[in-house]
Specification:
Helix 1 (15-27) runs parallel beside helix 5 (112-121). Strand 16 and strand 17 (249-253) form a beta hairpin. By secondary structure, the protein is α/β, with parallel strands linked by helices. The model has no long low-confidence stretch (mean pLDDT 94). It folds into two domains: 2-124 and 273-285, Probable inorganic polyphosphate/atp-NAD kinase, domain 1 (Rossmann fold); 131-265, Probable inorganic polyphosphate/atp-NAD kinase, domain 2 (Tumour Suppressor Smad4, Sandwich), CATH 2.60.200. Helix content is 19%, strand content 36%. It is built from seven helices and 18 strands.
Length: 294
């Protein structure tokens, strides 16, 4: 078995867990290719019990290199970055949580040995997640105009609100006077959208969520629509530039940009352990069903 180990930063507090992780890979006979920028950070900090290869990113998939899965070490932000390397390769992702909440990187660090053992034995199931893609009349985001969590349009240069005219399949929906707007996938419904009052949407529900950010009109509420829809926007404001984000990536846009969101033509798959399901993840991460009064 060959896996990619992907992370963005090696924190001192995580070194014992990362060392345990690589030791366990060796014990299970799993060969690792480590993301090159992360590998450079491990020098003098991690002792590899066996040689490891280097992973350069999406180009390795284009070159036909075979990997059974990508294992991320970090939080949900690490998985969002890893998605830009995985793209349409169809290689599943296993997320080990070294961060805080971790809806996507749902395997806690105390379960590293157990998780890798189950991975080697093939005792897991795949959880398929849909993405969104951004279309623009001007080039944006290069070869990666997609997002696993959300796309946002936000004010940037002033404290003034921006005006976002919003259409669904060409039909006028609303004009939002707000700090911005979020278009979230079901995966992203537990992220920025949730903090702005949006609903939690289960994966594979076939929906997008449109959530305004601090709307001036208090009757402007989150809207759930079919992910077969095309959502388009026109933006106005006092500033010359606005902010457009796809997950953790951002670019500047102007009122001359005409933008549209639709469902992406590929999906990303996540490896889940046998005892893991979405209701359990939500219940544990949000502490539902727990009486903290006593």
């Amino acid at each position: 078995m060959q896996v990619v180990v992907f992370s963005t930063i090696l924190k001192d507090k995580d070194i014992p867990f990362v060392q345990e992780f690589f030791n366990t890979l060796h014990e299970e006979g799993i060969y690792a290719y480590v993301y090159k920028p992360y590998l450079a950070q491990t020098v003098g900090k991690i002792e590899f019990p066996q040689d490891v290869g280097e992973f350069d990113g999406y180009i390795d998939f284009q070159l036909g290199k075979h990997f059974d899965c990508v294992i991320t070490l970090g939080g949900d932000g690490t998985i969002l970055v890893a998605t830009t390397a995985v793209r349409d390769s169809n290689v599943p992702i296993l997320g080990i949580n070294l961060g805080r909440l971790g809806f996507l990187s749902s395997i806690e660090k105390k379960r590293i040995k157990e998780a890798l053992g189950l991975l080697k034995k093939g005792r897991f199931h795949l959880d398929e997640r849909y993405l969104l893609t951004l279309e623009s009349n001007k080039p944006l985001f290069g070869e990666m105009p997609f997002a696993l969590n959300d796309c946002t349009l936000l004010k940037r240069d002033t404290s003034s609100m921006i005006t976002i005219h919003t259409y669904i399949n060409g039909a006028y929906l609303n004009t939002y006077w707000a700090d911005g707007i979020i278009i979230a996938t079901p995966t992203g419904s537990t992220g920025y959208s949730l903090s702005c009052g949006g609903p939690i949407v289960f994966p594979r529900s076939g929906n997008f969520v449109i959530t305004p950010v601090a709307p001036h009109n208090l009757t402007a509420r989150p809207v759930v629509i079919s992910d077969n829809s095309v959502v388009s926007f026109e933006i106005e404001g006092r500033a010359a530039n606005f902010l457009c984000t796809l997950d953790s990536r951002f670019e500047l846009i102007t009122a001359k940009h005409q933008l549209a969101i639709r469902k992406c033509d590929f999906t990303v798959k996540f490896i889940q352990l046998p005892d893991s399901d979405y209701p359990k993840i939500i219940r544990e991460k949000l502490a539902w069903g727990k009486d903290s009064r006593n």
